[in-house]
Each structure stands twice: as C-alpha cells, then as structure tokens.
Amino acid sequence: MPPQLKAKIGLPKFRIEKRPPPPLLTRVKWYVLSVVISLIIGAILILSAGVNPAIAYYHLFSGALGGKLALTETLWRFTPLLLTGTAVAVAFTCKFWNIGAEGQMLAGATLAAYFGVTFVGLPSWVLIPLVTVAGFLAGAAWAAIPAILRAKFGADDVVTTLLGNWIMLYFVGALVEGPWRDPYSLWPESPAIASAARFPTLIPGYRIHIGLIIAVLISLLFLLIMRRSIWGYQLKAVGANPRAAGFAGINVGRVLITAAILSGGIAGIAGVNELCGTHFHLKGIAMGAVGELSWGYGYAGVFIAMLGGLHPLGVMLAAFFMAIMINGSQAMYRATGVYSPFWRVMQGVIMICLLIGIFMINYRVRRVRE
Amino acid sequence: MGLGETVKEMPIVVMKGITKRFPGVVANDNIDLEIRKGEIHALLGENGAGKTTLMNILYGLYTPDAGEIYVRGKRVTIRSPRDAVDLKIGMIHQHFVLVPPFTVTQNIILGMKFPRGILNLEEAEKKVAEISQKYGIKVDPHAQIWQLSVGEQQRVEILKALFRGAEILILDEPTAVLTPQETKELFKTLRSLAKAGCAIIFISHKLDEVMEISDRVTVLRNGKVVATKKTSATNKRELAKLMVGREVVFRLRKARAKIGRPALQVEDLHALSDRGLPALKGVSFSVHEGEILGIAGVSGNGQRELAEVIAGVRKATSGKVLIFGQDVTNRSPKEIIDLGVGRIPEDRLQMGLITDLTVAENLVSEVHEKFSDKFFFLPAGIFLDHAQINNYAEKLISEYKIVTPSRDALTKTLSGGNLQKLILARVLAQNPKILIASQPTRGLDVGATEYIRRKLLEQKKKGAAILLISEDLGEILMLSDRIAVIYEGKIMGILPAAKAKIEELGLMMAGTPLSKIRGGRK
To answer: Which domains does chain B have, with CATH numbers?
Structure first.
C-alpha cells in the first residue's frame, strides 16, 4: 500500500496526499518552475515600480552576462557564494542546521587577516596557503562549538549557529575599531594584508582571482566525497535517519562534528576569499553599520544550498544564478531605476516558491470528486 | 445467500463497486460489501489487501474514486469522519488517540458539542457509566488515561464511539496490542454489542480470531473481494487459502539443534526508558548456541529497552551483558556488530532502515566500511567500492527474494514484508553467532511471516543463539525452545516451551511470577 496520509487539509474540494518520491527529472522540473514563477512575481514587482519588466530583465541579464566585464564580475561574485553554498550544503546534508556561515566567514577572515598582516616577509606560495588554512581552521573551530553543543547536550543548532554570527560580527567590529584599527585609515578596518597574501587575479585588469579556482575545486571535492567516500555515505545516512544510522554502527556524533568542521572551514575559506581577493582589509561594524566584508554571503549560502537541492552541482548552478541576480540587479538599477536590492526581495520570493515546489515534489494535490 | 435471509436481515451498510487508486496501486478494486445489523463481520486479508483503505473510506478519511455507499438503505456521501459519526459510524484505530493526563470521561467528550456551550461533566460521567454498564465494558470514568492498561484504553476508545451513538463499529486489528486475557474480554464486549444490535466490522489478518469471533467473513486479496462466507460454513484452511491464494503451512517443525555453550548472557540488567523511568529492573537470562529463547509479554513492558541495550543503542544503568563470556555492557553498536551479533529491531522504519537511501545502501549499512578499495594514490578506508557493493546487493536481493524495482530504488518504496527481508538479508549475510530478533513478523503478511520464521529456525540449526522478542504468543510458542515472560521490566519466569501452558503464560504476562503460579498450585 502506498504511504497514506490522514491529513485532510482545509480546502473543501482538494485533498493533499503524500506521494512516492518522483524521478529526478520531476524534481528538477519543480525547482526550475519555482524559479520561473518567482521571476514572474518579480516582473509584477518591477511593473509596480513603473518599469517594463521585459526591459528590466533584459538589463538584469545582460548586465550580468553580456560582455567580458559583466561576466567576470559575475564570476567574481559567484566565488564566495559557491563557497558558502557548499559550506551550508555539507552541513544540511546531515541535518546540522548551520545558519552560521556568515560568522564562520568572519572568523576565517579574522585569523587570515592576522597572518596576512603579521607575516609580511613571506613569499606568496607560503603565505597564500597559510592564510587559507588559517581561515579554514578558524571557521571550522567556530562551527565546531555549536556542533559539540548539539552532539553532547542536544542544544538547538539553528539558535547557536545563528547567534554565533552576531558574536563574531561584533567581535570583529570591536577588533577593527580597537586594537586592530589601521591608524591611517578613515574607516574602522585593519591595516592592509601583505601583498604576498593577496589572491592573484586570473585575467589582468579584471577582478576575478584564484579564489574562483579554489571554490570550484572545493565544490568538486564535495561532489567526490558525496559520490564515493565512506564519510559521504555516513553523512547522507546520518542526515536521512540518525537513529537508524547509529543503530547500524555509524558514530553519529562524530559525523556531525566532522560535518560542522568541514562546513565551517569552507565558510572560513569564503571569508579568506573576500579578504585576500577583494578587500585586503579586515572590515567590521562601523558605528552601528555593518562593514562590507561580506554581503550577507553566509545567509545567501543557506538559500543557495536549498535552491541547489544540497547537490554539489545544483549548488554550483544556484550560486551562479544568485550571482547573476546580485550583479544584474545593479545593472538594472543603473538602466531603469528599479532599486538594486531587488535581488534581496527576489531571494525571499524564490525561497517561498521553492518551499512550495519542494512540497509539490513530496505531495500531490488531488481534486476531490463528489 | 438465500433470499429469505436478506429480507430478514436488512443490511445496514452496503458498499457497491468501491474503487480507490493510489499512485501506482489500486488499493480497492470494485469492492462490494454488505454489513448487517447485529453481526460481527470480519474483514480478512493480508497486509496491503485493502482492508484498512476500505474502512477509511467508510469512515470518511478517504473519498473513493468510484462506487456508492448506502447506510440504512439511503445513498450517502461521507466526506469526513464527522459525516461518519453523524451516520452513527465509529472507528477504533490501531493506534489510540487519547490524551494521557485527561480522565476517561474527559477523553470521551473531547470535541463534542454541548447544549448552550456549557460543559456538564457530571452528566457526561453518568452517561459514560450508564453505557459501560449496559454493554459490560469495565472502565472507571474518573481514571486518567495514563493509569490505564492498553486493553482498558481500547475500551475507552470503544466507549467514545458508543457515546457518540455509534451503531456501526469498525475495529482495525484490535487484538494486536492485547494479552490473551484482554482479547477474551474484548470479544465478550463485542458479542454483547452485537447482541444489542450493533454492526461490528472487525479487521484482522489473524485466522484464529476471525474463526472465533465473527459471524461472517469477507476475504480481500490485492484490493478485491475474494469471497464472503458464513464463518460457521468455512474453516481456517480454506480462509488461509483464499487470503493468500495458495496453500499455507501452519506448523513449522521446530528443528532440533545441538545446544552449545552460553552465547548471550544478561545479568541483573537495569535501564531507563526514553522518559527516564526505570524500564528494566534486574533482567537476567542466558541464551545458548543453537537455542531460541522467546521473550513473551505485552508490548511496553521493557522489551524494546532490552533489545536496545543489547544492541548497543541504549545505556544500561547497571548490570551486565556478556557475549561468549566477554563483558560488552554499554559498548557501541559497531563493537557489538563486530562481535557477531545480528540485530533485527522492532522499529523497521525508524531504527532498522534508512528509508531515504537505496536498497543497496541499506544492505551494506552495517558493513559499508569493508567495501573500500584503493582510489588512485589514496589508501583503502576512504572511498567506497561501488562495484563491489552492487554485486553484494544483487546477490542478497536474489538470495532473500527481496522484491524491489532495482538495487538503486529508494528503500521507502518497498512493502513491509520486503523491508523486513532486507533487514534479515543484511543481518544474516554476516552469519551472526547471536541474533536479537524483535517483533520480527509484526505487521507482516502470512507469506512473509512464514519466510522470516523459516529463516530464524534455519539460523538456529546453524548453531546461532537467538533471542526472539515477540508480542505474538503463538509465534513464541511455535519457535522458542525456552520462554521467558517479561512484565514491567522484570522476568516473571523462564520455562521450557514444551511445558508451557497458555493460561500460565497469560498470567505471567499480567504480572504473576511463575513461582507464585506453580507454588500456589502445590
């Protein structure tokens, strides 16, 4: 007998029934449909701003993809998004609800900044791996705390990781306003890191840098781990059913903590990427306003991981889509005047449509005939 | 069926041509059913035959895709349980829906409307007492639900239906949770209800019960009605054949095996339940090689905790678990598995299987680390060898006749019997020296049950020590060499199966130690 559902929800003429898991293609269809419907809703919003949606979307997409500059800028934006998206996907796969990629990014950037500023004399080939590893470790450590709290005491990881973001944000703010403040800068920020610590650009004159390669390699490594490794199998098993995984002899606590370490570490590298690839100064809260080391990439990571269905390749697509939305929104603003945080609105709209889409994958709505 | 008979006993419920499709299955295929006033009508069929679906349609939980329902001669559309209650139909589900801290009366009136919105608890209590008196259903209306035994809780559910004026009563596998004595009590109640004019629909897959309690029986197979018979005009063998579609062997011959050294010993074991209350209070026993020790008892008396402590997923607070003399108390599940202990958990879906993973992935869940090979320059122990896993899975799927579209199908798409076969395959493939089988056939159909039991006996013959924990007393008697009865976390006594009497076991299941029963007789 198929899974039955006693749920008979509200609407008089319809009935919601659980259905067996549909094939991959159907799932992809619902994901794509969610995005398309979101874009239609976005069009209505643009229309309400008095702009022709077709023109606005033209500027959005051509501003993100049309031409070498636009494309490299989108890839430059894509890099941290791919990293945080992957970071969150790793954690979510075993149902460690890491909402703290933002804080882990900052943690990574902070330790990387310490090394980057301190070891001025080292050559690039030593310093870049050094700051990257430092960023990984700091992010990992910051994520390990909530994971241990959950594994040992059952503390809610959503709360602890989320609150960790604020602790880290204000900690960095205090650092760059206080002991680490660059005395010559107008802004509360650390001194610049050594030029040897900066990520070399890939194409002279454009902003994309080796962070892109690091991010793609990490994403592919994630794919390999999920496809082939023992640990990937355990991660999936713990995520699907921790009780059964534990019963089968898998050490659930250990898988959880390693997942958190990996997730936080990748987020930490996203922080390093921002520090060494873009900003070169550690930035923080300035007089109550949030400094722009991260554009909320850590939170966007949650969105990207979900939109990508936690699948490494899906995450890659989702991160790229998000990069288009962010950069394209700015081009759209310049051309049509639709305010550029449009992408933040779209992030919310897509999330809601996506949740409905995921629901439609798992349930079917049937017309009840008399 | 004679014409005179039909006229005399006007059917109170008629279901005509009921069809209900679920994605991929026709759960009910053009079903006709007639229920008469004052009869106990058994709905017999294997799991997945469509019994519960049909009754969920009658109770308004599902809407049929086709077909008509007549109640008391009038065509009706039942859209919700509320409609069903208005038609005086009541349903008692397998899992009770009661609020534990509320009293019996409070539970019975829950969700009912009162004139002018004023709750008159005293009057309700009086009415509850009246009904329970009338039908001889013994329940204290002031008692709180958590204080009641499972049998008593079931009576509350029945009262609840009667209080709402039910004349047509549907019971979904009501005896699954009862002791033999409680079952007897239930049957008495059902007979008196039928006598008073109620129509009772009794869903079951247990032939003995159907033979004992029903007036007529309708057999379902694969969503279709195979036959409707007068119970007095049929027998167990015929019903079994109708139900399964082939001859069934009832008695498995207990294989003789050489009893060896003690394999699993449990000494004065204590453990807590999920709620932190003592669930095991000093359990001791031993199981030898080539022996099946059956643990009988009503569910919730510490069986789950016992199995979980031995399996390594629950901590013992004191006492010892020994495997071939080695103290393994509170070791991790992995260590227990590696010592050659196979574990079949009672909760297949939550504990036994990871249903969102594929069949192959579940078949190797306990041993996946062994399927590792070198990967480029990396040593074994990091990556899985999928080719090897797939071969292994294919082998087990065919050896244990697991019905699945493929080894890569998601496990949750399998039927109950095949889920259990999957667990069995995973466990037996390791050639366990000790086997802990908890409720191994619960909820399975006749065919799968027979298969699982054969496999257990086979394993015993090979010299495995088997701890069989089951609520099905028939199963315990059929398979065990010795029987221990557990009650409230204590062993009431252990006796050889050959010398066990059902009455004695029943008394022990209700909390009388063996020493007292035997002592009292002398």
So the answer is: 3-244 (3.40.50.300), 262-521 (3.40.50.300)
